[in-house]
Structure prediction request, 209 residues.
Amino acid sequence: MKAMKGLIGAVALACAAASAQAETFKIGFMTTLTGPSAALGQHLRDSFLLGIREMNEKLGAFNVEVVIADDELKPDVAVTKIRALIERDRVDILGGIVFSNVMMAVYKPVRDADKIFVSGNAGPSPIAGAQCSENFFSVSWQNDGAHEAMGQYAKNKGFNRVVVMAPNYQAGKDAVAGFKRFYGKEPLEEIYTQLNQLDFQAILRASLH
Prediction:
């Protein structure tokens, strides 16, 4: 909920710049609403809409209209739908997105359209580095930050036999990179799982032997 308050606040601050003359401020909100990971997107959407409702569906002097889009956790689908939000729905600002591979896919069309994007969850490291933009805001984290702390902890504890496992997409790769950066040496093994994989028993058993 704290992240959502930050997201609402960032959107409110962007109102004047994005839609100074309009009576209605239109927000395009993209998140994952189908598939095994839909619960995350549903929570993100529902908390955002709750925040808007608690402000009587207004941001300052503007009435608010929210257009919801389901990225289906498919980068190609996300690109098509983000372009529809920009070109067809003519939203003033964009927000949402749970998964970093989706964020990386839509990032260029958003930049090309010169739209402000406020991320409620996704924080891929390339967007904080060489590909950074003054129009991109994350109210959550940069993916590798928490994992850098774990890498430093493992190093301080003298853990010498470490296996790292992460889902095989941008955030998982950022997590492993952050861990290794502060751990200071190569783990025994790096394992990358499918993004929607739910059962890790076989992998864990193999790693323990």
User: Anything to note?
Assistant: DSSP finds seven helices and eight strands in the chain. The radius of gyration is 19 Å.
